[in-house]
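Tokenised fold entry reproduced for everyone:
>
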Amino acid sequence: MASSKKLSDRRTQRTRKRIRARSGDRPRLSVFRSGRHIYAQIINDGDGRTMAAASSLEKTLRESLKSGATKDAAGAVGKLVAERAAAQGVKEVVFDRGGYRYHGRVKALAEAAREGGLAF
């Protein structure tokens, strides 16, 4: 029987494979959530480099948020990564939920990034 880590890795790889097949040349907005924080980064897979990143660990967000594991924190990270992407000239991305369900914190981050100006 496969362990939960292996099953999680399979879901992540399956999601990324579908995204790469359909993305064209758009960068990928990748989300990682842990029990305490949430992280987002915009990755250009063609160059293999990160164009913009934000997380609930950043000092400005930690001071204003009660916890890094809430929907409010996810929304703040989504807005911040959208601002940084706009500064890099990125307007359209592909959303990589990383095997997580589109629900709760992941959904809050995605909606805040859309409000911040990213299209996906």
